[in-house]
Amino acid sequence: MSSLEPVSVILVTAGSRGEKLLFRYPFCQDSHVDGMQDEDFNCSEDENKSENRIRSFSFARKACLNYSDKTLANILTPREKLCGKKFELRIDDVLFVGHPTLVTQETQSQRNDAQAKVEGINIKLFNIVFALQAEIDSSVCECYHDLSQKISTALKHEELRCGYFSTERQTMLAIHDEVSELPEASEASPFHLILPKSTLAKALCDAFD
């Protein structure tokens, strides 16, 4: 388990439906990493560094998974004036890094009428966030910020070209709505259902892996 690995990748948006966490990965506990108990870390002195990295990763993963979607949507969606620059927020064992991107009215007005009819077009901004271990080296943190910026730039370009992000957003929102109507006893995960239906979700998983 490398200390350079991200803990999670998260996509949040703000728009006509307010702040929304559209997708996060991974979206379930890792039975190997997160199931470890303190006794699993009893080891020789030579193994301490490796085991401490695993422990740190485990704590960060658990902390991130314990945050509700609503909480993450709230804390990871900055004001519009903070878009277009590095986003960095540390909470306990987790460091959140992204590059919030504004989807301007000018961008949306350049799309044709057919594209403009896509439901949910009113998007103010989006933020692709990598959750990292809080003590990660600053140079590694900068690499993940650069990755977030590159993905965001490509998404904004495709939104202007063909409304790609609006379409993907609507697909994700529809699945969230379907899951919200299921009985409370249902354990269905919207993210599990989104993954095979969204090319954007698959791309974020690839970036994480």
Automatic annotation (TrEMBL):
Matching Pfam families: NPR3
Record key words, sorted: Lysosome, Signal
Gene Ontology CC annotation, any one: lysosome
Any one GO biological process: TORC1 signaling
Compartment(s) where it occurs, according to its Swiss-Prot or TrEMBL record: Lysosome
Main localization, broad class: other
Record family assignment: Belongs to the NPR3 family.
Described function: As a component of the GATOR1 complex functions as an inhibitor of the amino acid-sensing branch of the TORC1 pathway.
UniProt-recorded name of the protein: GATOR complex protein NPRL3
Organism: Paramuricea clavata (Red gorgonian)
